[in-house]
Amino acid sequence: MKAFVTTLTGAALALGLTSADSGLGQEGPAGPFGAASVRFEQNATDGDVEVVFEVRGRADGLAWLTITAPDGRTVVHTSSPEASTLGMRQFQMESPEPPDPSVVKAAYPEGVYAIAGGTMAGDSLRSEVTLSHRLPPPVTVVDPEDEAEDVPTTGLHVSWAPVDGVVAYRVTIEDEETGDAFTVSLGGSARGLTVPDGFLKPGTEYQLAIGTVARNGNASFVENGFTTAEGG
151 pairs with which residues across the strands? Predict the structure, then answer.
């Protein structure tokens, strides 16, 4: 679940952060976040890439959160407004997807990113995550074919050719008009899945996205479109 999305920026100094804003004045030992990760994702169909950070605090909400790149730049900073009494506990932050992947790689270089935060109760949190630009090979979808029509609404089996070295597959089927989606994660040995009866509607356009996930968490997605049969 996306609890919060904020804009990532490589212009740390332009934010005009003070030590109070960033939490640099906090004293005392810092514990780890409840969860923290970073990954590099590619849409192999259109060539877009993005960096995704996911951070979860512990029991208390966060008053502020800062992520520092390996070269010392602050690439993420967010804080709760003074009127907030609980703060935010979970964040998912996605970079823009410019047409040139090298722009994203330059803005978010490989290496260790330091994540720091302070809770509404005054506790400090610290974690480190490592970003790699190495992506897994994309999958080849076997069935249904891209732009397939008259696809049955029951008993649909989605299948793909195996990809060596991946640890998981992520599959999403989304109704392009309503946004209703079916999503599942499968192990690296999976070669397909059967869509639960009752999800697909007759005469409807769907987008199928299948992602290969590497051990480092990075993912490459392929997108296909299909339309179900009018009579189901």
Answer: 228
Q: What is the pTM of this model?
A: 0.82
CB 181, CB 173: distance < 8 Å: yes
CA end-to-end span of the chain: 31
Check whether the bond before 144 is cis (ω within 30° of 0).
yes
Helix (H, G, I), strand (E, B) or coil at 142: strand
The helix (run of H) or strand (run of E) holding residue 118 is strand 111-119
Share of the chain above pLDDT 90, in %: 83
Question: Can you read off the two tokens belonging to residue 199?
Answer: 């999800």
8 A C-beta contact, residue 178 and residue 222:
no
pLDDT, tens only, 85-96: 899 999 999 999
For residues 216 and 180, give the distance between their C-alpha atoms in angstroms, rounded to a whole number: 29
